[in-house]
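User: Sequence in, structure out. Go.
Assistant: Echoing your sequence, followed by the structure tokens.
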Amino acid sequence: MEGVSDVDSFTINGSKFGIDGNKSRLAFARTAGGTFTMDLIVYGEPSTYARLAEGPAWSWSLYPPKFYLNDYPVPNADGFVVHLTAEDYEDYDTAIYMMEHNPIESVVVRVTHGSRVEARGKVALSGRMVEFSICWTAAEAAA
């Protein structure tokens, strides 16, 4: 995916927050109809966040960022790309949390072989839209 690196990272507006692999999770559930849903929760790494929060760009925040996309329908649990639509933001629980649930848009999520996650899009912070990207290999995708 263009603009996303192969190293684990959670970047917002150029600031690299790292990823807390102990708290982040990727999980799939099979529905009664045989399709799948995905829960994707990615947390910024606390010590990296603490260093960034010492500067003026992030001093207003109290917590590392948390991206979440819950109970989202996906074609399978083995590899796919989804482009969230305007309706998806209304119908599914998704945002980036930093002091409040910040709306996201133009989000594309790619999961490769059930464990490599790449996501990019825009998030509303302090009244303006800024870019974010996530690149993370989940320890194990729960199914």
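User: And one key feature?
Assistant: The chain is about 10% helix and 50% strand.
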